[in-house]
Amino acid sequence: MGRALELARRGWGQTHPNPMVGALIAESGQVVAEGWHAEDGGAHAEKAALAALGRAPQPGATLYVTLEPCSTAGRTGACTEAILAAGLRRVVVGATDPNPIHAGRGLEKLREAGVEVVAGVLARECTDLNLIFNHWITTGGPLLAAKSAVTLDGKIACRTGESQWITGALARADVHRWRRLFPGIAVGARTILQDNPRLTARREGEADWCPWRFVFDGLLRTVVDKAMPRVFTDEFRARTIVVTTPHGGMGYVRKLREQGIRVWCFESSSQRVPFDAFRKKCAEEKITGVYFEGGAQLVSELVRAREMDYLFAYRAPVLLADDKAKSIFSGLRPERPDQAVRLAEVRHEILGDDALMRGRVVYPGKLLLDETVFSLK
Asked: Residue 262, SS3?
C-alpha cells in the first residue's frame, strides 16, 4: 500500500476534480504491474494497472489500491466491473470512497461477487492524500486552506516589516509543493503591493506551474499605480483573477479586463469581499481548492468569517519576543480555551529545523469577535 501511495502522488495536482489514486497488482508476493490516475478524464488507477499487466492476472493475484474502486459507470466505466472481468479474487483497499452516495458500495459489490476484500490498510494516509477531493465531494464546494509561517511566539515579521526568511529552505520548498497541489492560490492587495510575488509553484527539476492566482482587493488598490504588479503583466496573467467589490470603481475593473485579467466583482456593503460568495463562485467554476498565503488581514478575515477549512502552520525555531512584531491572526477574543479555534485530524512534519502542523479547522459554538481590529481605514 505504501508503494501504491507513491504511485498515486504521481498525479499530484493533475487530477482535479478527481482524487489521486494508485494501484498495483502482485503475484506470488511480487509486483507485476502498476498504475495511477494521471489526469481528469484519464484511466482510473485500477484500469491503468490492468492495462500495464497486459494479460489476465494469475490465480491468487492481489490488487492493491489506495481508494475504494468506483462502482458507477461515469466516463470510463466502473472499476468494480473491470476487476471482476479480469478475474481478480483478492483486493486490498486503503481509504473508503468519501462520497456518501457511494461510500462502501464498491466494496460491497466485490464481496457479493465472491472477491476477498481487505479494507482500511494505511487508511489515514490514503485519506489524507485527497484532502481537497474529500472536501469537494462531501460539501460540493472548494477547500479554503490558509498557510502561516511564524516564529515560536507566533510572529510573521519584525516590527520593521522584515520577514525574509523566518522559515528555512525546506519549509519554503514544502510550500511550493502544496502550491502545486491546489488549483488556486490567494493573497491580499497588501501582499501584492509589498512583495510583488509571482504566485507560481517553482520546484527543482520542474517547469514553473501557475495555479489560478486570486488577488483579494476590495478597493482595487493594486491597479492604481502605473507600475502594474507582475501577476497582471507576466506570461501567466490569464491565470490571474482579481476578487473585488464595486467600491473599487468600475473604471479599474474595465482596465483590468482590457489587459486580459479576469475580475470577480461581488456585491458587498463594505470593501471586504464576501467569502461565501467567493466560495460559491469557485464551486461554479469547478475550482476545488484555494490556498490562502496572506497577508495577515486576509487570513484573519477568513477565520473570522468561519470560512477557513484547513490550516498549514509552519513554525521556525526563532523567537522575536517583541509585542510590536506582526502576528498572523487577529480579530477574535476568546475568554476561555474552549472558545478557541482548533485543528482536528492533525498531521505533523519536520522540515529541517522547522515544523509543520496542519489540520482541519474546527470552530467553537460561538466566536467572540474584536470588531476594532477590522475597522475600515
From this structure: strand
Q: What is the pTM of this model?
A: 0.90
Percent helix, percent strand, percent coil in the chain, to nearest 5: 30, 25, 45
According to DSSP H, which parts of 34-73 are helical? 45-53
d(CA 127, CA 372): 40
Residues marked active site are found at 46
Tell me how far the alpha carbon of residue 235 is from its chain's centroid.
24
φ/ψ (deg, to 5) at 27: -125, 125
Distance CA 180, CA 174 (A): 10
State the Cα–Cα distance between residues 356 and 346, nearest whole angstrom: 10
Grid cell 470577480 is found at 264
Over residues 80-133, the pLDDT tens digits come to: 999 999 999 999 999 999 988 888 999 999 999 999 999 999 999 999 999 999
C-beta contacts of 99-104 below 8 A and 24+ residues apart: 99/137, 99/138, 100/138, 102/68, 102/70, 102/71, 102/72, 103/68, 104/68
